[in-house]
Each structure stands twice: as structure tokens, then as C-alpha cells.
Amino acid sequence: MPVPTLIPLRRLFFFLCICAVSIIALYSVSHVIVYHIPLTTTVLFPVMTIFLMVFHLMIAGFMVMKYLCDKSRLYHIAIACAFSGATLFMLGTLSSYPDWLTCSPAARINYNDALIYYFFRNVLMAVLFLAAVILFKYRKHNMHTRSNHIIILSVIVSFTLAMLVLSWFVSSHYEGINVAFIDNMTLAFTPLWQKATGGLLITMWLVTLIAMLIITRLRNIFWFSGCFFCVFYIFTLTILLLSPVGESNNWYQARMFETIATLFLIFVLLGDVFTLYKDSNNKYQNSYQNSIRDPMTQLYNRSYFYDSLTQTIARVTPQQPASVIVCDLDHFKRINDSYGHLQGDKVIQFVASILQDSVRENDLAARIGGEEFALLLVNTSSEEAYRVAERIRLIISEHDAQSSSGSFPEKITISMGVFTTTSAGLGVEVCVQRADEAMYQAKENGRNRVVTWQPER
């Protein structure tokens, strides 16, 4: 017996190919854009940060809505806190560019604070992504009680707040602790960033990516996008670590790549939302169709026929009449008793298909009883309705044991009654009753015929 792989190899290969193509394409786009913008444009980085902030806030909103739709998916809250916390960290990044609104060439920029907020943002997101994957793994366990949700949410929110507070203390806002990742004068990365911190962040994202791949097994587009996001952050960190000096191009390109990648993630989530909406709409449509159709013949049922007839009668005029045809199979009980109900069902389904194929798109065919059917023909005169009924009767009567290659045991015939109304004041029950009376008259006159209702004299 073959041992199942942790990740389906075909999915993994497809994921790696998409990652490679996406990284090459996004890197090329960001490279072209950044190197065609003058480096004196100090407003570029803050503007990209604002866009990234908005994108992160949108994703956090998506995650909260997903959780509210299904409380068993607690892992969505961890991802929501990751993106909402990242939004707050980017507010701190904007505070590192106090003069960006003035577009001054000599603007003051605190690169070290920006890198500190970037570091803590990565820690927050990597840890909460990992927490989301763990919560996903245990989503079917007995953990979805009110108390457990409160505890887990409290831990997630507390961790987010702790990261925000800690980042504020180690930045220039608090002089008691001095953490230096980059020299603001020379823009050279310090050994703390190059030899320890940067590598630590990449390791955290790698652990999160591997855990996400193994646990989720890339089972849907949502986790595909989550793994993409981990890869994007690993690559963004690599862009910064490859250079010993934090030159503007590196910062701009890393942020441009991150912005484009996050926008891509939003499109993926929008696609996921569209897919969920489409599936939900299809389920609703299927449920609705099941409620208005006869399960055996797929013709409309009695209730829907009467509702449609009510709406149609309200619009009829002498110039736009409506016709009702009531049909009943002849000697159907004999077929059931002699050949069994399975054979009777085949006859009913055959007749139903003939009726459905014989009406126009705006008309309606329904099964209103065991072997009784009804047709609603809009904007159809009595003479036209009679011709439709006669055509149907002839098609059905042509089928017997020989012509159907043994599918039917004997000749099939049908009796049909036609009634046409031109008055909107006539009740639905009256219309059906008169068509029914004409049908019974056809039965009395020898069956296998069409009779149009005539008033008694």
C-alpha cells in the first residue's frame, strides 16, 4: 500500500511554478518602476506605505467577515489580527517620515524606526499566521465553546498589543532602550540586522510556510494565497538582506514588491469571495428549483403552476389572451397494474418530455397530479391552443410497443381539455376547472382527443 505524501506532489509543483513566475514578474515590474522614478521623490515610500496600509485593512475586514459567517473558523481571526496589527505598524512607519507631506528634498527620515516597525510587523504576522494554521488543524476538535473562543481571542489580541507596545519602546520614542538595525546617516545595516535579525525573520517565515504547506496541503485557493504571502515576505526580506547598505532603491523595491504582492492577494481573496457567492447562489437556485419542480419529471409542480397562472391572468386582455390545457393519460392505472410502477414512471417521464419540448420559453408545463399535467400558454388564442394540444396528442399517440422498440408495453394516448380566458377578473380555480371539464368531456367522448371548453347553452 503506497504511503500518502504530506503534500500532493502535483499541487506542490503547481504552487512552486506559480511562485517562480509571480516572483519574476513582480520583481521585474517593481524594478522597472523604481528605477524610473527619481530617488529624490521622498513621497514615494510613504505613499506606497499608505496603499499597503489600506490593502492590509481590507484583508483584515475580509477575515473578520469570514469569521462572523462561520464561527468555527477561528483561524480567520488570527489572520485578521495579523493584518490589522500590520496596519498599525505601518502608521508607525509613516511617523518615521515626518516631512513627507511637504515633499521636501531635505526631508528628515528615521530609517532605523522604519526598520524596527518592519521587524515587529514581520514577527507579528509570521507568528499569527502560524497560529492560524494550528487553529485550522484543530478546527474540528471540541474547542468551539464560548469560553475557549474568548481565551484564544484574548491571547491573539494580547500578543498583537504586546508587539505594538514593544516596538514603540525600542524605537526612538523611548530613549531607555537603544536598538539599531541601520545607521540613519550612512544607511548601513548593523551586524544586529545582517547577522541575526534578518535571518531570524526569514527562518520564522520559512517555518510558517512549511507548516502551512504540510497542514493545509494547499487544499483550496485561500491557503494557496496564504502560502504565496509567506513566499512574498521571504523574498522581500531577501531583497533587503542582499545589500549591506539600506540604499533607497532597496527600500523602494522591497516596498513596491510587497505592495503589488498584497494587491495580488486581495484579488485572490476577491476571487474566493466570488467563488463562495457563486456556490451559495447555485445552492440557493438548486434549492429553489427543487421547491418548484416535480422531482420525477422536472416539470413545474402544482403550486408553481397556480402561482404563475394567477400572475398571468392579472395581465390578460382580449388582445393578449391566456390558455390553459389540462391533460390526463388514458388507462394509466391499467399500465401501472399490468406492467408495474417502474414502467408507469417511464411513461410519465416520456410524456413530460414531450410536453416540455412542445411549449415556448414563456409558456409553462407542469405536473399537477399523478398522471395529470397542465400547460399555461401566454398570449395564445383558443384556436392556437387547440392546435398545440392536437400536435402534442398526435406525437404521444404515435408511440406504442413497436415504435418505442419495446420501451412502452402498449399504445399511449392522452385526453386534453383547453380553456382560454380574455378577462383578468376570472379566477384561477375557474380557469383550471373549465379546462378540467373539457378534458373529462374528451374522456367521455372516447379518449385520445382534444376538447375546447364551451359554455353551456
TrEMBL record:
This is diguanylate cyclase. SUPFAM superfamilies: Nucleotide cyclase. NCBIfam families: GGDEF. InterPro entries: Diguanylate_Cyclase, GGDEF_dom, MASE4, Nucleotide_cyclase, Rev_trsase/Diguanyl_cyclase. Pathway: Purine metabolism; 3',5'-cyclic di-GMP biosynthesis. GO terms for biological process: cell adhesion involved in single-species biofilm formation; negative regulation of bacterial-type flagellum-dependent cell motility. The keyword GTP-binding applies. Its cofactor is Mg(2+).
